[in-house]
Design brief:
single chain; about 325 residues; alpha/beta; 7-stranded parallel β-sheet; 4-stranded antiparallel β-sheet; 15 strands; binds ligand RRO; Dihydroorotate_DH_1_2; cytoplasm
Length: about 325
């Protein structure tokens, strides 16, 4: 058995690393490159029912320790991604990938999930409850009653494996509250975290914001979000029922970062900002780096250390 293999919802992946939604996964060409890569799976750009152009540019900006973006859900529409994952499933039976959906209303999410339920698709769906960048549309993940309503209505009819992509939480009481809701549903996984939303980056030289949408407000990803991501992965791993796997996303640049996410409880990790900067070779590098760490420590599978972070109370 491959050292980096992982299992979620009874599906096995050869490698526990993959792209994060939105990064190099919007076109067929992007997705084909991920299929050919060392990544253990891919996730498609979050889809809306119809194609969207997204927000005006500049809408992404590189930072010394990460990135800020306000893309505004540019995507080719659900049909495009659903056709892609179904065709891929026919070509490569036995593999599982992630289809991300992010309706800007509950009605849109339900309509998309009805279409997926009725289709031949058998892979994972990642329901994005945390897009921070659509003007006038708050992040569902910060409205706990709304999360309850959405999941009640989804699980009324949806029977295929489904997970949710969450925003970062910043209070332990919020970990308790969101976990108490998520534990009521047959979720296959929870993905934590999306970007840290509605941050503001200022260029002191030009005395201007660095991205155009929403007056410069956007989501932060990359190195600077790692401690927040680890806190959320660990916070959820300690509170969710064991049937719900954790996908850890946020601040991964190297094998040590992957190792830390897994120690905090992640069964799979996703890489966003750094995959955007580095492209496909990233996955080979991370696999080598994580394998080296595991060999030095005498671990032969990620289950040997997953969730086993120690505290001073242990
Ligand atoms: O497209 C975006 O602006 C976007 C989305 Br949907 C998301 O979930 N997270 C993010 O940082 N950007």
């Amino acid at each position: 058995m491959n050292m980096l293999a992982t299992t979620i919802g009874g599906r096995t992946f050869n490698n526990c690393m993959m792209n994060a939604a939105g990064i190099r996964c919007q076109s067929k060409q992007d997705l084909d490159a991920l299929v050919q890569s060392d990544a253990g799976a891919y996730v498609t750009k979050s889809a809306t029912p119809q194609k969207r152009a997204g927000n005006p540019s500049p809408r992404m900006h590189t930072l010394p320790h990460g990135s800020i973006n306000s893309m505004g859900l540019p995507n080719n529409g659900l049909d495009y991604y659903l056709n892609y994952v179904i065709a891929d499933q026919q070509k490569r039976p036995g593999t599982t990938n992630f289809l991300s959906v992010a309706g800007t209303s509950l009605a849109d999410n339900l309509a998309m999930l009805h279409q997926i339920q009725a289709s031949e698709y058998t892979g994972f769906v990642e329901l994005n409850l945390s897009c921070p960048n659509v003007p006038g549309k708050p992040q569902v993940g910060y409205d706990f009653d709304r999360v309850h309503t959405v999941l009640d209505q989804v699980f009324d009819f949806y029977t295929k494996p489904l997970g949710v992509k969450l925003p970062p939480y910043f209070d332990l009481v919020h970990f308790d509250q969101i976990a108490a809701i998520l534990n009521q549903y047959p979720l296959t996984f929870v993905n934590s975290i999306n970007s840290i939303g509605n941050a503001l980056v200022v260029d002191p030289q030009s005395e201007q914001v660095v991205i155009r949408p929403k007056g410069g407000y956007g989501g932060i990803g990359g190195a600077s979000v790692k401690p927040t991501a680890l806190a959320n992965v660990r916070g959820l791993a300690l509170r969710l029922k064991p049937e719900i796997a954790i996908v850890g996303t946020g601040g991964i640049l190297n094998g040590v970062d992957v190792f830390e996410h897994i120690l905090c409880g992640a069964s799979m990790v996703q890489i966003g900002t750094q995959f955007g900067y580095e492209g496909i070779p990233l996955f080979d590098r991370l696999a080598t780096e994580l394998t080296d760490i595991m060999k030095k420590k005498g671990y032969t599978s990620i289950d040997d250390f997953r969730g086993k972070l120690k505290t001073f109370d242990d």
